[in-house]
Amino acid sequence: MPAKSVHQNGHVITNGSTLPVLPKVKKTILQNVPVPEPALSIRIFRVVLLLLYFWTSSTIIGVTQYLGTPLYLINKDHYYRFMAFTKQCMTLLVLSMTQWWTTTTVRVSGDESVQDQIHSLPDGRLQCNFASRMVLIANHQLYNDWIYLWWTAYTNRPFSHGHVYIVLKESIKYIPLIGFGLRLAGFVFMSRNMKTDTPRLTRRLGQLTRRSNDGKGGLEPMWLMMFPEGTNLSKNGRAKSVKWAESQGEKDLKYTLIPRSTGTYFCLKALNGTLEWVYDCTLAYDGVPEGQYGQDIFTLRSTYFERHPQAPIHMHWRRFKVSDIPLETLEDFHAWLIERWNEKEALLDEHSKTGNFPSSINQGKSITTEVKLGRWWEIWQLGAVLAPILGGIYAISRFVL
């Protein structure tokens, strides 16, 4: 029998050669979520269809955004409302891709602070009744994490997916077409240099405290989504986290990276008095071998292009009153945030041993559901603005000619 060493970087080392871990993980998941493996020609067709669908829909959304930009000079309330609609369309695009091109099971749990806010509908869909204004923090496991958090905003009542603002790395805004669309959607880009980020954050957060023009005078809905760790869990990220912990004399973490507190602290200080809650989500994925990283196994490519079934996703929710969070100094807040991440470590340790998070909702059990649209025909919203305009141009051109 060939000698085997421990798993490293998503591979098993066997007599000096590496064998990918993914097939073993995939086989385990397939035992629970059977997905037939299609022929090569079908897989190629699926990839082509996916790319065509994504880029066509992205172009439609992008053009719609560009057509709405003049509203900023005419009426800013109408402009922000219009961009919120295009952001809803982004959500529908991502969720429809996730529903039609892969299999995604989610198990949702929570503590007593959210026990009356998470429900399972008769048809099996999830419904949340979270606050309309919040800062949402979460640990970062995969590149896909933001998809499932955004999906939660889609399940919220009232709908909140048009008012999600994700804090992203600055490099993302330079992606052709997509980057500019995310900028129009109001996403927040950070360079991880507070000297550069401070004026940028001040301006963007000021825009997120505007009053609604609905006659009630309340603040606009807002879900500000942040990953305090700064990057997803990986070998490189783990090495940096260990080095930072040693330099600061802090205990390193096993299932997460040590969170960066400066950006989160700045946002909470700037938004203090305009929102009541900070929501926290702990994310975990089944099927990740001990000592490995989910990002090396469940990639965007394997999930959507190769249709490897996504491991069941576990989301554990809780919330904290902003008034109970120490914001007097950065040091006080950092200690509070580290304490929350230590609690995440305990949650993730229990998940690794039992396969589940503890839950105070649904009679002590997690809610098992899927990432999907409420109604398939919602996707037609993508053309709600562009189609009438193109139809009008066509009709006028026919009349003139």
From TrEMBL:
GO terms for molecular function: acyltransferase activity. Keywords: Acyltransferase, Membrane, Transferase, Transmembrane, Transmembrane helix. InterPro entries: Acyltransf_C, Plipid/glycerol_acylTrfase. Residues 134-265 form the Phospholipid/glycerol acyltransferase domain. GO terms for cellular component: endoplasmic reticulum. One of its GO terms (biological process) is phosphatidylinositol acyl-chain remodeling. Pfam families: Acyltransf_C (PF16076), Acyltransferase (PF01553). The chain crosses the membrane at residues 44-67. The keyword Acyltransferase applies. Belongs to the 1-acyl-sn-glycerol-3-phosphate acyltransferase family. This is Phospholipid/glycerol acyltransferase domain-containing protein.
